[in-house]
What does this fold into?
Amino acid sequence: MKDIFHDLLASRSIFKNKEVLRPSYVPDFLPHREKQINELASILAPALRGETPSNVFIYGKTGTGKTAVAKFIGKQLMEKGRQLKVNTNFVYINCEIVDTQYRVLQNVANHFIKAWEERIPFTGWPTDEVYSRLIHSIERTKGVAVIVLDEVDKLKGDEVLYNLSRMNYDLKDARTSIIGISNDLKFTEFLDPRVKSSLGEENLVFPPYSADELCDILGERAKMAFNEEVIEDNVIPLCAALAAQEHGDARRALDLLRVSAEIAERLGDKKVTEKHVRMAENKIELDRVTEIVRTLPIQSKIVLMAAIVGTEFYDSLTTGELYLIYKDLCRRAGINVLTQRRVADLISELDMLGIINARIISKGRYGRTREIDVSSSTKIKEVLEKDDTLPNLKDYKPKLQSKLL
DNA sequence: CATCCACAGGAAGGACGGGGGT
DNA sequence: ACCCCCGTCCTTCCTGTGGATG
It folds into this structure.
């Protein structure tokens, strides 16, 4: 018993505050985003002077600090508003979760509705009534409202964007600014031109972080997250370098650091070392693959299974060979067989998810096809074997030769 | 050098299901 | 309550093509 408590107490000594490493945490200091912060601030500043601010469109890949900067600005703006006695409101909406026109309007409107007033229900009201209620509530504040739509590309339909971005025309005493955030560069191309011009009055690009910049970010957070002297010197540069290889994703770097420390803690080690980072890298990858595989539709699972079974016996497969195995597996499992055209698309999807590799090769006279292999096949196989909707692949042997005749 | 394999991958359309508008 | 539109999944049909082989 004593030993158990001893271990637990010892392991407490790594983290001081784990929360600051979580993606949801918004730090007070954002290294290497000063330029973006200043630009965004100068775009929104007119609002505090009673002028109408522009709408902004922000884009950049995942983990480049888009959301953090937006939330940070929101906080600052609220503070400045209090100082200047201007009524400021900041609404943050993640469109991946709130993804329909009605729910966006409802969410924004409810933000402005006072506690004792009737809130707008989840469903039931005509959309235009929600809109006019929203306009009315904002008008009443006689102040500034900044509305952030994170992941705007996930929004179904662009009507909401149109309505929201032209709200200023319906307002007299209040002003709004819409900030749209997206990681899809081509997103605006598909928008209604009117929305495009009103939302994209200003554009901000967030470039990926370099390895050095990631180091600074991690260092800053590590000071808050960990106790003194628990992180070895090479750990942070390593996390930064690994994340920079991907696409300068700060979230990934922070995850690596956090998981490394968690592993160290669980192992009862007093310091986080390079070894833990390597283990963390592995664990994160395994978790990612597991999650992807687990949530794959049945047909994709069968295709993946065919790829694994096939590569176990032949070191690379062509689309045609994979398809033969796939058909056989389907018949055994009593699942309907898709056409080769469709299976080819499923193979592409699996390739894009990064759980198989499929590259186009030409075998000259013997055709052009994709060569397929599987990166971490044993991990994937484990996940697939636990799935009881699939045929059991123990002792299964593909018989290509006879089928190919 | 033309040929020709075994596909890649685009186009069009059918079936189906869910969500929003009326 | 109903319908319609849209997205997803899948099929059918099709044209395009890199490069070993004759």
